[in-house]
Amino acid sequence: MRRKHGSLSVEEEENEINLTPMLDVVFIMLIFFIVTATFIKEAGIQVERPDTVTAEKQEDASILIAISATDEIWIDRKERDPRQVRSIIERLHAENPKGSIVIQADEGSTHEVLVIVMDAAKQAGVTNVAIASDDD
Amino acid sequence: MRKHLDDIHFDDEENEINLTPMLDVVFIMLIFFIVTASFIKEAGLDVNRPDAPQTVSKPEDANILVMINANDEIWIDRRLIDPRAVRANIERLHAENPEGSVVIQANKKSTNKMLVSVMDSARSAGVYNISIAQ
Questions:
Q1: B35 touches A at CB < 8 Å
Q2: Strand B74-76, strand B64-68: pairing
Q3: What would the pLDDT profile of B90-103 be if each residue is shown by its tens digit?
Q4: Contact (CB, 8 A) for A56 and B43
Q5: Residue pairs spanning A and B at CB distance below 8 A
Q6: Could you say which of B44, B109, B110 has the minimum Cβ distance to residue A133?
Q7: Taking the complete model, does pTM exceed 0.80, yes or no?
């Protein structure tokens, strides 16, 4: 009886699942997701985007700049002065040099502010600029 | 002596590191990164593609000029055009001159709705090389 009990305990120990391979896989997935995670700087306000039919998905957008209907510029959840825009874009672009800029211009915002933002992006060295729109 | 050996064996088993809490933490981190990795896909129109060769070589080579004035009226070829007719007009001008790109000259006070509408019309007409005069 005692002997039988002993052998049962050995079997139970043998039947324990070896977690090491799963741990390896999980770690590799973790490292993959940490490395590929590119955090998008969101603008911070909702704008009424113009409707279009030919919009394309902007895959590598990393900086979102919103222009509200009252011509305020929002970057990174704060309202910014037009003169600051260039230095902010430079700083955000340095964090993720491969990302592009998407300008979310409200339907009612004026062309003047859009040009200010596009000019600042060009001066900051970002050539890939797109204007956000709603696609159906 | 035998008892001593048994004790050592017992100690060894107790000293094995319990991986379960670490596994929990790693899983939570994994889930966090998977959830935050849902990239925002912003739809949009590209402005002035940098790889367009004709804008560099022949900048003034009979481009299609579209003007938007302060009252959001669209003028092409010295004529006032309805926003719905922009596409047909650009198509016609593009057929006359397939090399030319669309240049939009917008007034400072015009709204971006009209600008994007003109860009969209140009893209529907098959002209993807659009620049905005500054």
A1: no
A2: antiparallel
A3: 999 888 888 888 88
A4: yes
A5: 135
A6: B44
A7: no
